[in-house]
């Protein structure tokens, strides 16, 4: 039996090599490791092989080879996903299809404000291509140096500029996709208006590689902000955050790009584990916001107006203290605090993550109820609360207590997550606002999604991937 499997694998590798060349196929276990380790180190994973096609035709041929042999495929971008969606299961029967060699910028049209890139372009490469043309591609997340645009679109990534520019989905005009059949759909349109039937690209945005493999995308570009102001603000509690955001938007409109929340323990973890991070204000506070505004035109009085707006909020009692970055280095210091929370908490130990959203007006109520509930079920757990408050999206994570082993702590994940997700659902929120479902949150889909919704999703899956070969056992319970 094992020998037959070995023979099949060798034959599969040869068929793949004929398409992508010898260097495009990885079969040695040791060389596959980077493609098998999930970002959080939670999952068992193995694969028949890793295949790295360099063109859309190669991707299509690889998919046809797998389909003819009933071999399941896990598409992989930068492998920075936090829900185990980008790694195969432990069976050793699946193939990882890495998009990393499909990394060309195909075209840019600055006057049309559009950019066409291949799925394997790293997000910073996409940002830089826009920047070189004097424009902005606004998607921004702490993993931008390694995540790929194909992964961003497949997860409908969020990040720190959603308030102004929307999620990844909203930045897309067209897609090129390889379907489960191995056919290529060329939907790479660069039109802002196109009502010709169903908007098919939506089938592949945020569906985590379960309905097709994105190979290229036509993206929207924006005018680049000419002036930016960044402030680190201490607030008395989370309840004032919605009022303060309303005040800022009233004064600066859509120029408010970033509105990120961090509780004190996040900063303490960053100070402990990330070299160069330091206390941002003269005193220590419990609640912080990182606020950024940016204007495309040369609004020379923006800094002064921003200071005035903050002073007005101070008088209202919504701000305790604030510092507006005076130099690029100071701005980077503020961002370093925010962007290193995930890394610092990872170094600190095991983490049970929740990536939730509620209406902006319910954020403070959620934090209060969630914090009380977790203090009851695990009094020594380290609660790490931060996130994209302007979008009502919080990362409500629990790090392992000092007196508990990681394995025992993670063994309580289901119980702890149920406590948090029940509160979210009670507040009409989402138990998965940003990172997707992957393999880790499928049980929550079963618990919280209606049977009508789940059946509609299964209908789409059966229609587009009748053999169930694209990311099987991901997303749908
Ligand atoms: P991968 O992890 O490789 O894959 C993610 C999913 O997409 C998998 O299901 C995979 O099968 C599928 N997939 C990948 N490429 C394709 C493709 N071309 N076609 C079809 N399916 C594909 N996420 C946010 O949304 N906001 C954040 O602010 C954020 N911050 C992060 C910070 C850190 C430090 C880290 C480590 C992660 C963060 N993430 C964040 C999570 C992660 O970076 C995003 O989900 C990102 O969009 C994943 O991109 P990737 O290329 O790494 O995809
Ligand atoms: C972030 O916003 O930094 C990530 O999405 C958060 C996380 O690691 O949970
Ligand atoms: Zn996030």
Summarize the SSE layout with pairings.
Elements: H1 2-20, E1 25-26, H2 29-36, E2 49-51, H3 56-69, E3 73-76, E4 95-98, E5 105-109, E6 114-118, H4 123-132, E7 135-136, H5 149-154, H6 162-165, E8 172-178, E9 184-187, E10 213-220, E11 222-223, E12 227-235, H7 241-252, E13 256-263, H8 264-273, E14 287-295, H9 302-315, E15 321-324, H10 328-339, H11 341-348, E16 351-352, E17 355-357, H12 363-377, E18 382-388, E19 393-399, H13 406-410, H14 413-426, H15 442-448, H16 451-464
Parallel strand pairs: 2-4, 3-4
Antiparallel strand pairs: 1-2, 5-6, 6-10, 7-11, 8-9, 8-10, 12-14, 12-15, 13-14, 13-18, 16-19, 17-19, 18-19
Helix pairs in contact: 1-3, 7-9, 8-11, 12-14
Bound molecules: flavin-adenine dinucleotide, D-malate and zinc ion (ZN).
């Amino acid at each position: 039996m094992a020998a037959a499997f070995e023979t099949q694998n060798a034959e599969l590798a040869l068929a793949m090599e004929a398409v992508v060349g010898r260097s495009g196929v990885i079969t040695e276990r040791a060389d596959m490791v980077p493609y098998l380790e999930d970002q959080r180190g939670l999952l068992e994973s193995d694969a028949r092989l890793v295949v790295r096609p360099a063109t859309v035709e190669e991707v299509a041929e690889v998919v046809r080879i797998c389909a003819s042999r009933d071999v399941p495929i896990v598409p992989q971008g930068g492998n920075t996903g936090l829900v185990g969606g980008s790694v195969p299961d432990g069976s050793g029967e699946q193939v990882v299809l890495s998009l990393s060699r499909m990394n060309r910028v195909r075209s840019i049209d600055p006057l049309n404000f559009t950019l066409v890139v291949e799925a394997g372009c790293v997000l910073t490469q996409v940002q830089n291509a826009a920047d070189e043309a004097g424009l902005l591609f606004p998607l921004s997340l702490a993993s931008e140096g390694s995540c790929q645009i194909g992964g961003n679109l497949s997860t409908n990534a969020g990040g720190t500029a959603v308030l102004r520019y929307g999620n990844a989905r909203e930045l897309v005009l067209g897609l090129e996709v390889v379907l489960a059949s191995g056919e290529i759909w060329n939907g790479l349109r660069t039109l802002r208006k196109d009502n010709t039937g169903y908007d098919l690209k939506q089938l592949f945005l945020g569906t985590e590689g379960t309905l097709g493999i994105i190979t290229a995308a036509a993206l929207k570009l924006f005018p680049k902000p000419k002036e930016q102001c960044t402030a680190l603000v201490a607030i008395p509690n989370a309840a004032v955050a919605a009022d303060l955001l309303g005040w800022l938007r009233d004064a600066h409109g859509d120029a408010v790009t970033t509105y990120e929340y961090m509780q004190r323990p996040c900063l303490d973890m960053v100070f402990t584990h990330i070299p160069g991070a330091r206390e941002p204000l003269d005193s220590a506070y419990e609640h912080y916001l990182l606020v950024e505004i940016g204007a495309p035109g040369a609004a020379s009085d923006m800094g002064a107006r921003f200071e005035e707006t903050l002073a007005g909020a101070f008088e209202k009692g919504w701000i305790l203290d604030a510092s507006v970055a005076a130099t690029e280095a100071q701005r980077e210091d503020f961002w370093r605090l925010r962007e290193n929370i995930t890394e610092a908490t990872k170094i600190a130990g095991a983490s049970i993550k929740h990536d939730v959203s509620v209406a902006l007006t319910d954020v403070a109520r959620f934090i209060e109820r969630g914090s009380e509930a977790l203090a009851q079920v695990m009094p020594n757990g380290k609660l790490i609360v931060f996130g994209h408050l302007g979008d009502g999206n919080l990362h409500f994570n629990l790090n392992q207590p000092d007196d508990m082993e990681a394995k025992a702590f993670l063994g309580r994940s289901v119980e702890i997550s149920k406590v948090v997700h029940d509160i979210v659902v009670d507040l009409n929120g989402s138990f998965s606002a940003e990172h997707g479902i992957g393999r880790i949150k499928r049980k929550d889909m079963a618990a919280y999604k209606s049977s009508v919704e789940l059946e509609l999703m299964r209908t789409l899956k059966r229609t587009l991937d009748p053999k169930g070969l694209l990311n099987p056992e991901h997303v749908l319970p």
